[in-house]
């Protein structure tokens, strides 16, 4: 005896509903993926491309009531703005925070800044820079 096949003959009844649903899901996934890439590209351009001021802490030295921070700022020559610096104590409490302006007409500004603190700080951190 032979066993009967439960499969439908190929090409006789068209595509099954599952095949159509899979095709629609693939199209929807491709469209959503493309939208996500466009969105990520948009935010990356505005975050990186539009940033006129960037900076980095080169070094810092702590004392009982201040932190000396050596800051290197890169900017467009005509850009004006400020950078926010802070210091924390050993237990993580913030002991000092201040904004320092940069209005020089230069592409690179190298400064040693004094951040006053309420107690001995153990860090000299750059929180960010913003253009006016």
If you had to describe this structure to a student in words, what would you say it looks like?
The protein has 132 residues and is of the alpha+beta class. The chain is 25% helix and 40% strand. The chain has 1 helix and 6 strands, in the order αββββββ. The chain has one helix spanning 17-49, and strands at 53-62, 66-75, 81-88, 94-102, 108-116, 125-131. The strands form 2 sheets. It has a 3-stranded antiparallel beta sheet with strand order 1-2-5, with no helix packed on it. It is elongated and about 95 Å long.
Task: Write a concise synopsis of the structure shown.
The chain has 132 residues and is of the alpha+beta class. The protein has one helix at residues 17-49; strands at 53-62, 66-75, 81-88, 94-102, 108-116, 125-131.
Proportion of residues in helical segments = 25-40%
Radius of gyration: 30 Å
> Biggest sheet, strands in spatial order?
1-2-5
Rounded mean pLDDT is 86
Number of strands: 6
Determine the structural class based on helices, strands and strand pairing. alpha+beta
- Shape call: elongated
Largest sheet: 3 strands, antiparallel
Q: Could you name the ranges where pLDDT drops below 50 across 5 or more consecutive residues?
A: none
What is the count of helical runs? 1
Percent of sequence in beta strands:
35-45%
N-to-C SSE string, H for helix and E for strand:
HEEEEEE
What gap, in angstroms, lies between the N and C termini? 87 Å
